[in-house]
Fold:
Amino acid sequence: MHKIERLLQTLAPKGVEFRKLGDIGEYIRGVTYKKNQEINNLECGIKVLRANNITLSNHLNFEDIKVINKNVKIRKEQYLKKNDILICAGSGSSEHIGKVAFINTDFDYVFGGFMGVIRIREVNSRFVYHIFTSNIFKQYLEKSLNTTTINNLNANILQNFLIPIPPLEIQQEIVKILDAFTELNTELNTELNARKKQYQYYQNMLLDFNDINQSHKDAKEKLAQKPYPKRLKTLLQTLAPKGVEFKTLEEVFEIRNGYTPSKNNPEFWEKGTIPWFRMEDIRENGRILKDSIQHITPKALKGKKLFPKNSIIISTTATIGEHALLIVDSLANQQFTFLSKKANCDLALDMKFFFYQCFLLGEWCKNNINVSGFASVDMTAFKKYKFPIPPLEIQQEIVKILDQFSLLTTDLLAGIPAEIKVRKKQYEYYREKLLTFKPLTPLNNKELA
Structure:
């Protein structure tokens, strides 16, 4: 920061010039094509980047690439080039308008009709990219976009955006500082993804007992070949030497549907104290839930029993396969099926172990759907789904291992995600500070709107 201040005092003591984007670069809209011009062969067509290929954190995402046939008319300038700034110019959601990604190299992609490219001249394009990720640009968009342009960032709006142009040496120094933050965040995200893959590997290995089902004659031999951690393998060989028992869901659990009280009756909702869970609760608060966003009153029950704490909810319609462990007596909406251990079931089952098993059950649900009408899980088959119940000490050991990995990968209060959050805040703080300049001449307020 001190170096930047010295450079400003030396090279721009009276302030910096602000220029319209249209004066320092060009704005190019993307390729338009018809649905029937899309093909499935990556090798035989032209790859297209669209709005979903830019994340809200301004990175490229190549998971879902569209390919169009080579007969589509494409101008030379619609191919992406090194130092381009790719921007989302049209979307059904306002939060996606204006998100950007920086193109580090020439490559054989074009960009779709709801996208645009900002191609900068004279100025450091990476410096301009950081401005487009900042609150300076976000605030400009909020003032410029109205109800008629909310889904379309047109050329006029972009070309009139005022950009500070400090001397090149200052631009380069600012880019150096901000890129150091983004590089560190990239490294942390890479580390986090590696941990998640490691977690996924261990989760699948620890929860899949199909090879050592006690009904299989070769279960003992298969167990000897399994790459389990030493303590877990010893426990299995000691406590389940002939394999692991499997039970169906309906043998172990009371299975009930969720329920939504009438929204037209305020007595069911006003001053409610009973947790009532929806998918939003999982999205907002994770998979282990002790309270809900919305609550209902005792009158809303209308004779229905609450689901006891330590029940599992799993979505069997709409967003299928999502699940959570509820550690409070509660209800949920009809998107969910509740699984509560039967009172007369004497099997020792750690519900946290079954919670982890539900990641596999969720994947099974996605592959066993009745598609006639509204998509929903085949509930007859669901009740017959078999899952393993190893001895309790083994369940607890597996929970201990998976909890440790889960803490590292998903808990925002510890591990790598917390570090990423801190570094992101640091980057945003320095970005706003470094990109705020004293204008050389007073700016016209109308130009900023």
The mean pLDDT is 90. The two ends are 29 Å apart (CA to CA). The chain has 15 helices and 22 strands.
